[in-house]
Amino acid sequence: MKQHDTDIIIAGGGLAGATLALALSRSLPQLRVTVVETFPLSPDALPDSYQPSYDARSTALAWGSRLIFEELGLWQRLAEHATPIRHIHVSDRGHFGATRLNAADHQQEALGYVADNRWMGLCLMRELLQTNVVWQAPAEVTDMQPIADGVRVTLGADDGERQLTAQCLVVADGGRSGLREKLGFRVNEQAYNQHALIANVSTSQSHNYTAYERFTDAGPMALLPHGSPTRAGNTAALVWTLDSEALDELLALSDDDKCQRLQQRFGWRLGRFARIGECSHYPLTLKTVDESVRPGVVLVGNAAHALHPVAGQGFNLALRGLMVLVEQLRLATGQQQPLGSLSVLKAYQNRHRQDWQQTVRFSDSLIQLFGTNLPLVTGARDAGLMGLDLLPGAKRWFARQAMGLGGRRAEIRTPGTTATERSSDE
């Protein structure tokens, strides 16, 4: 096999790219992994202690994602600032349908967790500094050409361009990067004609570790428990779906008026909304790539599929896909196959396809089902929510989707262990 400058180049060192780099270092320490990122990795940038910010953006981690981070040896540190979700309450505003999920009913300490993005990034960086992963930063991948048994990647940096050869390029720089399109991947887009407003809020009543999913005639909203992992506080992470006109109107309001508007839409289950933090927003579009691989290149994370945040499954789906990719690369290494060969990457795509298709359908169907106010449809979905609350089998299925255990996932294995795959149904 031809010698390259490195084995794997990961374009993007965010949560997906950094997690993949760590997983590869755990499972395949003999591989040379290079991460290309616009922000430098430096021990000086890592604080001695983490102080959560009120306005910190966060991510919902399913129970299945916790299991993956445990296998990576990262969960113990992550858990220091990960708020558990012990209850999920799903309701349809103005209608009688509702369903409730409780972790204790499934013999788990939590259904999922909420962790600040910055905290997850710091935990990953600390671990990566202890590995042989090479960090090319600040730099970005600007182009790629296929070569024998691999790719030649062009890196753009402040000091000019340079090139690296590798067996495989992994595009992990998110759904808004232009690298995916520049490389010629065809993206399917379905605009929801809505925006997601993200902010942290304070309420007069404790969240009691409950995540609320509230469907309204103007779009879904979610409130996730946020703050201390050991004390049920009064801070929640808000994801509020709005159309363009409503978003512009809301952003023009004072913070007090924003809280009042939120009160009208969500109700009083958490008491009075007392404070809303810094608001950010982005347009909602379902993006998928049917063929996310080609010789020497594979898309992962939001570069391969970007979902509506209604079910909180985007990063969890990406994480499961990363583990499947690592397992496929491990098998290829054992069989001395080129890591960027189309047969290897196609095998990864086929193994991950059912999971991402099922997760996309699950998330998109919620939007379609709760996005109409036709009497027959509203009656059916209210009956469905009540049915979930009354039928153990249906409720168990719904809980497994929420916990990120609906599909299969590959295990991370350290050298010397056998190749097996565990079903989430075990």
UniProtKB/TrEMBL annotation:
Its cofactor is FAD. GO terms for biological process: ubiquinone biosynthetic process. InterPro entries: FAD-bd, FAD/NAD-bd_sf, UbiH, UbiH/COQ6, UbiH/COQ6_monooxygenase. Pathway: Cofactor biosynthesis; ubiquinone biosynthesis. Signal peptide: none annotated. The keyword Flavoprotein applies. It holds the Pfam family FAD_binding_3. Keywords: FAD, Flavoprotein, Monooxygenase, Oxidoreductase. Its EC number is 1.14.13.-. Gene3D superfamilies: FAD/NAD(P)-binding domain. It comes from the Bacteria. Residues 5-363 form the FAD-binding domain. GO terms for molecular function: 2-octaprenyl-6-methoxyphenol hydroxylase activity; FAD binding. Belongs to the UbiH/COQ6 family. This is 2-octaprenyl-6-methoxyphenyl hydroxylase. The gene is ubiH.
